[in-house]
Each structure stands twice: as structure tokens, then as C-alpha cells.
Amino acid sequence: MKIVSAHVGTIPISSPIRNAYIDFSSMDCSILALVSDVIVDGRPVVGYGFNSNGRYNASAILEQRLLPRLLAAPEAELLDDDGALAPERAWRVMLRNEKPGGHGERSVAVGVADMALHDLAAKLAGVPLYRWISDHYGDGKPDADVFVYAAGGYYAPGKTLTDLQDEMHRFLDAGYRVVKMKIGGAPLDEDLRRIEAVIDGVLDGDGSRLAVDVNGRFDLDTALEYARALEPLGLFWYEEIGDPLDYALNAVVAENYRRPIATGENLFSMQDARNLLRYGGMRPDRDYIQVDPALSYGLTEYRRVLDVLDRHGWSSRRCIPHGGHQFSLHIAAGLHLGGNESYPGEFQPTGGFTDDAQVVDSRVAPGELPGIGLEGKAEFYSVLRGLHA
Ligand SMILES: O=C([O-])CC(=O)C(=O)O
Ligand SMILES: [Mg+2]
């Protein structure tokens, strides 16, 4: 097995929505095809990768550093002892001559390549990725389906409370039980009206089915003011409250807020996640870790994150990755995570699951196509095919 060519593209995943920190009017991402020399049914087996939303494309790092190393490596450096593609070995090749620290855009680029390598490895083995992950990295007994919640509730120009309620009703109609909305982009009293409109108008008064996401906007005073107002509502979680690297802020909020906290989508390495556990006051009996493998050096690094969590007494069930993509859906099923995010309708064409995926009672199965199964997302697959056809 040899990787004969690598093809990088940059595509928009933009929309007019806004969270408390950024709008998505110019959001884009990198896409990648790794073409192998293995031919099945007259076509080469190809692994695909992309980065999820929130960080912009990292195409230059892929093109200028990571992929040249991958393509120049002797075949044996990418293979395991049985001659099969070993994504973790290829990962080490890509990161040769890179210093530690300084995670960020590099971790996005590696995340894209790591995803494509895992897609390719599972396709070469002829199995869906969750099965490959479970057999190679897990206990061989993957979960049949995965908890998913519907994320949305963004701020948008002209969006009314009724529009917000309609959006949340659509999520419930699509099979989700738990929904998420943005806060922190409006004054507290206005956010509370938005929250109450969803809890009372959509969720039959049950706040435990609503998560709220600040996208790192609050200083400590505002974080605590909101915490006091939110606690009686019994929310599913209070997310990314302050700057992602302000572990002390997170710890103080955790001391003052009894309900679950979720964070980690802007932590890009095992070391960052470990610092969150060491200094962030996160509580293993109730809080959630949202590190997104597609943004943070891929599944190879994510396994290190899971190992650190385990050493700190955390269950993998407390991990619900950010990003709403099909890659993390397989990882969640293969490694017994607590769930995965979903954005019905946003961040197309990359976001979401295969076209035939059915969410029932907030659970969805990763599907049985070989690899990640992006071939089952028709619009996205036509874009990916265009990279190398
Ligand atoms: O608005 C965003 O950047 C996405 C986000 O935080 C999430 O999905 O949790
Ligand atoms: Mg978030």
C-alpha cells in the first residue's frame, strides 16, 4: 500500500449566523483526498478528511509541511508489521521536525490529515470506521448508536423569539431530545427571555433538555452573574464560559455553579486538555469534555486525551466532541464516548451525518459504509470527488 497523491482544497462553510464571539460569514475549511495505489472495482481507494467549523482552513500547512513529509516517507514508515496502513505511524511522520506547544492552526491541519488516514485505513480493511477503531484501539465491542444533541439557536439578523422556537421545534421533530442555543451575545435579561422562550415554549418546562453556549465570551463577573441566573433552570450544560485557556476562571465558576459545565472545543492537544483537568476545576461526576478530534491533531491525539482523562478518573462517557461531523460519530461509537454534537442544517456541505442517518430519541448510528462513509453524503461527496477526479 502506497499513498500516491494528496489533494487539498479550501471550501466555504459560511452562513449569516453569529455566536457571542464570531460570525460565520467567512468560515471555510480544508478538505483533503489521499489517493492510494490499491484498486477496488476499478477505482483507487481514497481517504478523505476535512476540518470542522470554528477554525478556518489550514490548507497551507497541509500543502507546505505535512503532506510533503507524508508523500516522501518510505512506504514501510507508514505501515504496521502486517503491512497495513498505520495512521499513528503516518502521524509521527507528519509531525517530524515540529516543536511541541504552539497548537492551533497546525493541530487543525494534522486533524484533517489524520481523519483522511483513518478513513483510508478502514476502507482498505473494508469496514466502517467505528468497527476499525473498536478493533484497533478499543474493546472490539462498539456501541450500536450514539447520543446526539441538536446545536443551533444562533443569533441571526432579524431572528425573533418565535423564529428561535420554530428552530427548536424542528430539532425535536427531527428526533432530538436535547437542544443547544447560544448565549452571551445579548444582555442577560434578553438572553433569559430567549432561554425561557425555549424551555417554556418548546421543552415543556424541562430545562434539563437545554444546553447554552457562551463561546468563551465572559469575564469572571459576568460568568458568575449568569451562573446565578441559570442555576435554578437546571440546564443540560453551561458551555465554554470564559476564555478557553482561562482555567482559573473555569474553576471558580465550577465552585459556584452546581449544574454541568462543558468545555474543550478550543483546546487542541492532550497537554491543553490535561491542564484543563489539572487547573480548570472540572468535575468528573457531571461535567463534559468537548475536544474535537478534527481540530486537534486527529484521533491519534484524541486517544491521548482519553488516556489522560482515564488517569484522572474520568469516564470516556463524559466526552461529547464539538463539531457535529461523521468522523467523531464513528469515534464515539468505537470508543464509548458519551455522545456527539449535531448541527441539523448548518455548516454544509461538511457538517452532519450521512444522508440516510435517522435520529431516533436523540440517538443515531454511524452507518455501515466503509471508512467514515462520506460517500453517503451526496453533496459533500461530489465536492470531495472533484478534488482528485
Ligand atoms: O458557534 C460555534 O463556534 C460552534 C460551537 O461553539 C459549538 O458547536 O459548540
Ligand atoms: Mg461551543
TrEMBL record:
The keyword Disulfide bond does not apply. Keywords: Magnesium, Metal-binding. Residues 161-260 form the Mandelate racemase/muconate lactonizing enzyme C-terminal domain. The active site is at K182 (acceptor), H322 (proton donor/acceptor). Substrate binds at N19, N53, K99, Y154, K180, E239, E265, H322. It holds the Pfam family MR_MLE_C. Binds 1 Mg(2+) ion per subunit. GO terms for molecular function: D(-)-tartrate dehydratase activity; metal ion binding. Its cofactor is Mg(2+). The keyword Cell cycle does not apply. The record marks N53, K180, E341 as: Transition state stabilizer. Mg(2+) binds at D213, E239, E265. CDD domains: MR_like_1. InterPro entries: D-tartrate_dehydratase, DgoD-like, Enolase-like_C_sf, Enolase-like_N, Enolase_C-like, Mandelate_racemase_C. The record marks D292 as: Increases basicity of active site His. This is Mandelate racemase/muconate lactonizing enzyme C-terminal domain-containing protein. It comes from Actinomyces glycerinitolerans. The lineage of its organism: Bacteria, Bacillati, Actinomycetota, Actinomycetes, Actinomycetales.
